[in-house]
Design a protein that fits this description.
Elements lengths: L3 E5 L4 H12 L3 E6 L10 E3 L5 H11 L3 E4 L9 H17 L7 E5 L26 H13 L5 E6 L1 E3 L8 H10 L5 E6 L5 E6 H11 L8 E4 L4 E3 H12 L2 E6 L10 E2 L4 H9 L4 H4 L4 H9 L2
Parallel strand pairs: 1-2, 1-4, 2-3, 4-5, 5-6, 6-10, 7-9, 8-12, 9-13
Antiparallel strand pairs: 9-11
């Protein structure tokens, strides 16, 4: 595949890590985001993807052979805003890159599955769930747009862990809350500690993307996950170990309904696909929970 790659949404946590990984792999990387300044030292072109003329100019100037679409906001519940930024911007990119781009990697979300019951876990790419949040709906719409173009690969990552993770997300909020409390024994408030989610280190995710970018005949939809569940309590305990603190929790909410306590993705399709090319997925998933949290704590 082509060596000229553009990362859209390059100033976000995922975008920054992906740019670094692709640069390390010898790719010609162009970064683009809506912000005036780049988040790192790389060739950077500002672009508002909601403006189709700006998108046209970006594609004309850069002529990328491959595009990573890492655009997304989740800090609002406003459905109109989420759909405009998370989904319809990709329509603009598709419309103005048909003559230059050979492949798109569209980063979606596990939120498109909604809340699968325990009997359907771990969820596969074929699971017919339905989003239960406006954010999930925006990603569901994004996938609908992406499916109509044969060059697109839809990537559904599990929950990220890594440096720069937003405090809008539980792991980011946990790290921030625990770091700000002094003493070897502390207490934090949680809504529950039994919910289980699948978490992947952003560095591992980007390494997997770097492997995929070299390959052909990638499945149309891929879960990129560890395939393992981690409870809130396990994350709190691991964070305590990393910081050398004993963390007590005070539950201030109701425990989730039992059949919705877990959300784990199957990575079997990814594992089998990589295996056919002599790549071992477990070797790419090199960061355990404590390693990921330590990376976040030291940011």
């Amino acid at each position: 595949m082509g060596r000229k790659v553009i990362v859209l949404g390059s100033n976000g946590m995922l975008g920054r890590h992906l740019v670094s990984e692709l640069l390390a792999g010898g790719y010609e990387v162009i970064a683009s985001d809506i912000h005036e300044q780049a988040a790192m030292d790389v060739e950077y072109i500002r672009c508002d993807l909601t403006d189709i003329q700006q998108v046209a100019e970006l594609m004309s100037v850069t002529e990328p052979e491959q595009i990573f679409f890492c655009v997304g906001v989740y800090s609002t519940k406003n459905r109109e805003v989420l759909e405009r930024i998370n989904a319809y911007t990709f329509s603009n990119v598709l419309a103005r890159s048909k003559s230059v781009c050979r492949r798109f990697y569209v980063v979606s979300s596990a939120s498109v599955y909604g809340l699968p019951p325990a009997k359907d876990l771990p969820v596969t790419e074929d699971y017919e769930g339905f989003p239960t949040s406006n954010y999930g709906l925006s990603k569901y719409l994004l996938e609908g747009i992406a499916r109509y173009d044969e060059r697109t690969v839809i990537i559904r990552p599990s929950n990220f862990l890594g440096k720069g993770l937003s405090e809008y997300l539980l792991p980011g909020k946990l790290v921030s809350k625990v770091k700000e409390k002094a003493g070897d024994e502390i207490e934090i408030e949680l809504y529950n500690e039994t919910s289980v989610r699948d978490f992947i280190d952003v560095r591992d995710f980007c390494r997997i993307m770097r492997e995929l970018i070299e390959l052909e005949d990638i499945p149309k939809v891929l879960n990129v996950s560890t395939g393992r569940g981690v409870s809130v309590r396990e994350m709190v305990d691991a964070l305590g170990t990393v910081l050398g603190k004993r963390i007590r929790t005070r539950i201030i909410g109701e425990e989730p309904e039992p059949r919705y306590r877990a959300h784990v993705q199957s990575n079997r399709r990814l594992e089998e696909y990589l295996s056919k090319h002599g790549i071992v997925l477990d070797e790419l998933l090199s960061h355990d929970l404590q390693s990921s949290l330590r990376y976040m704590v030291n940011q």
